[in-house]
Amino acid sequence: MDAITQQLDFRSGRGRPLSIATENLIRKLYREDGFSYRLIAQELNDQGIPTAHGGKSWCEGTVQQVLERLEEVVLEPNASAKAIEEISRMKAQTPIPPYVDIAAHLNSHNILSPGGKTWHPSSVYKQWQRIYRAKTRQNTKRIGAAL
User: Fold this and answer.
1) 3-state class percentages of the chain: helix first, strand second, coil last, to nearest 5
2) pLDDT-derived band of residue 7, with 50, 70 and 90 as boundaries?
3) Does residue 47 sit in the same domain as residue 105?
């Protein structure tokens, strides 16, 4: 173990230690920078940050598991928090703007699509369907818990 790694505090998650610095970086990239899971994994790999198991390669699923363990809001594996927030906010408007307008808004604010590219109306539609299904599942769980 190198000197930098030894100086970091570690937090366990299901028996797998991950540095607090790495957790904070993942949070920042997801929340503040609006990176998708894929882009976060790519950034961690580019920086040479090892996985919790000491592996050399991060993947989307690993990033998603870390965010879920950190209790970040995760509705869609490849969409950023900013994209989810903006799509949800715009769909709540009256009248509801067309998907082409939502795509233009996301692109004008430099919010990347799940693939790290610009938004297309069809990708906005697919993302909204995923958000809607996730919200429906959450409401169903709440109703079931109340019964």
Assistant:
1) 55, 5, 35
2) very low
3) no
Question: Of 118, 46, 105, 112, nearest to 78 (Cα)?
Answer: 112
Is residue 75 domain-resident?
no
For tokens 């976060």, name the residue. 40
pTM of the model: 0.47
Tens digit of each residue's pLDDT (9 = 90 or more) over 86-126: 888 888 887 888 889 998 998 888 887 776 778 888 888 88
* Distance separating alpha carbons of residues 34 and 71, to the nearest angstrom: 17
Structural contact between residues 87 and 127, judged by C-beta atoms closer than 8 angstroms: yes
The answer to whether residues 94 and 142 belong to one domain is: yes
Question: Under a CB-based contact definition with an 8 Å cutoff, are residues 86 and 105 in contact?
Answer: yes
In a domain, 76, yes or no: no
The total number of structural domains in the chain stands at: 2
Query: Are 7 and 47 in a shared domain?
Result: yes
Contacts of 109 (CB under 8 A, 6+ apart): 86
